[in-house]
Amino acid sequence: MKSKTSVTLSEEVLSGVKRAARRGESRSQTIERLLQERLTEHAARRAREREVAQINRHADALNAEVADVLAYQEEP
């Protein structure tokens, strides 16, 4: 479902939208596509940040576990 809305954009932004448009794509379609691409990138970045934060919270324990495993390896 689509909702109609009104936004005010600078001429510079509108020029950028025009340059980013694909052949046969309306201005609304271009803006929607660009926003969706940006929102997808933003969500992916936030997910990566959460993953890194979780790894960092457990880094000391993980490093200790790796050191323990390495201590059991035989030397050649």
Give a short synopsis of this structure:
With 76 residues, the chain is an all-alpha fold. The chain contains 3 helices and no strands.
Annotate the secondary structure layout.
Elements: H1 11-20, H2 27-57, H3 59-72
Outline the structure in words.
The chain has 3 helices and no strands. It has 76 residues and is mainly α. The chain is rod-shaped, with a radius of gyration of 24 Å. The protein starts with 10 loop residues before the first helix and ends with a helix.
* Low-pLDDT segments: none
Number of H- or I-type helical stretches: 3
Percent of residues in β-strands: under 5%
Rg from C-alpha positions? Answer: 24 Å
Estimated helix fraction: over 70%
Mean pLDDT: 94
What can be said about the biggest beta sheet? none
Quote the distance from N terminus to C terminus. 65 Å
How would you classify the helix and strand content by structural class?
Answer: mainly alpha
Q: SSE order, as H and E?
A: HHH
Shape: rod-shaped
Q: How many β-strands, per DSSP? A: 0
